[in-house]
Write the C-alpha cells for this entry.
Amino acid sequence: MTVPLDAAYADQLDAADDLAGLRQAFVNDEPDLIYLDGNSLGRLPRATADLAADLVRRQWGTRLIRGWNEGWFDLPERIGAKIARLIGAEPDEVIVADSTSVNLFKLVIAALRARPGRERIISDDLNFPSDLYILQGVADLLGGRYEIAMAYSSDGIHGPVETILGLLDRNTALLTLSHVTFKSGFLYDMQALTAAAHAVGALVLWDLSHSVGAVPINLTESGADLAIGCCYKYLNGGPGAPAFLYIRRDLQEQLVNPIAGWMGQRNLFNFDLDYEPAPGLRRFLTGTPPVVSLALIEPGVDLLLAAGIERLRAKSIAQTEYLIGLWQQRLAPLGYTLNSPRDPSRRGSHISLGHPEGLGIDLALINELGVLPDFRAPDNIRLGIAPIYTSFRDIHTAIERMAQAVIEQRYLKYRDHRPAVT
Ligand SMILES: *Cc1c(COP(=O)(O)O)cnc(C)c1O
C-alpha cells in the first residue's frame, strides 16, 4: 500500500473528515503536542472541565448532603445506561463501580460460584497483566482448586484462537480475555469465542478496556455473559475514573457479589444487620461511589454517542491504515517493525511499532520531539488513535518525528533511563 507522503495529503484527509470538528470539544492548550496516548488516558472534554467546577463548587459546596437525592445516588446506573449504548447492551445491564481490576475480581468469583465443580479458567498471554494477577489471586484465595490454563500467542501479535478452542472443555468454568489486547491491539471475535465457550457450558468474561469507545461492540448479539471495562481510556473519563461492569440480565439474579456492601443492599437505609442483595445490578456495588470522578465520565460518553461508534470506527480504520502506509514507506527502512495485526478487521484503534531502540526513541519523542505515545516492553512504541480527536495531520507529524528520532540518533542519550511510568 502506498500513501502520499506529503503533509498536504494529511490535511486533505482532515478536510474531508466529518468528525474533524469534534476535536474542538476537547481541551488542547499545546497545539504543537501530538497526543497519541488516548488509549491510556483520554483527553479532557471541555464540558467535563465545566462540570467539574459545578460539581465541586455548587453540588458539593452548596447542596452538601442533599446532593445524594439530587442525582448522585443514581449515577452508577444512569451513566451505566449510557455506556450500555456503546457496547450493545440493555440500559439495566451496565453499572459503573470500582476499578476495572476490582470489577474483574468480583465477576470472576461470581462466575466460578455459578459453575460449581468446574476447575479450569482460561486466559491468554496477551491479556493485561493486572487481569492475570487477579485470576492468580482468586485461584490462590480459593485454595488452589482452580487451574489457570494459559493460551500463548505464537507471534505476540495475534491471539491464540486455536489454542483457546483446544483448551475449552467440560471442566472449564470461565474463559476471560481482553477483547482488544493492550500491546498489539489484536481484536478477538467476541461472538465466535463466546459461542465456543457456551458449547462446553462455560461462562465468558470480556475485558473491554481497549475496545469500548473505539470498536463497535454488541454484547447482546454476541451472547456475552459478563464484561468489564475502563472509563479513562477511549471514554475520556479522567485519570482513575471508576470502571463499568456488565452482566447479562438473566444472570444478574443468579450471581453473588463476593464483596457485599451496603451500597448493594436491598434497602440500605433500613440498616438491617443481614445482607440481602438489591435487585438487578445494584447488588454489584459495594461501597459509596467516588461521586466526583464518577460524574465526570458522562460528558466524554455523550461525545462518543453523538459522534456514533460506527463513524468513529470507520475513521479509526482509515487512520490506522494511513499510519501503517506511512510506516511502511518512512519507518520500516529505519528499522521499525509493525507489531500489530495487518488486517484492520482484527485490530482495535492502536498500533504498536517495534524498534530495537524503542524505549530511547519513546523518551526522545516525549522529551524533545513533542510526541506523547507510550511504551510497552520489550520494544513497543504504542500509538493510540482516538478518532474523536486525533487528526490525520497528527499522525503524519508523529511519523516524521519518529523518523527524525532514528535518523538523528536521538535515542542514544536515553540508554540508561528507566522511567516509572511508560
Ligand atoms: C487499562 C486496563 C485495565 C485497568 O485496570 P485498573 O483497575 O483501572 O488499573 C484493566 N484491564 C485492561 C485490559 C486494561 O487495558
Q: What stands out?
A: The radius of gyration is 22 Å. The first helix runs from residue 7 to 15. Residues 99-101, 128, 130-131, 178, 182, 207, 209-210, 230, 243 surround pyridoxal-5'-phosphate (CB under 6 Å). The chain has 14 helices and 13 strands.
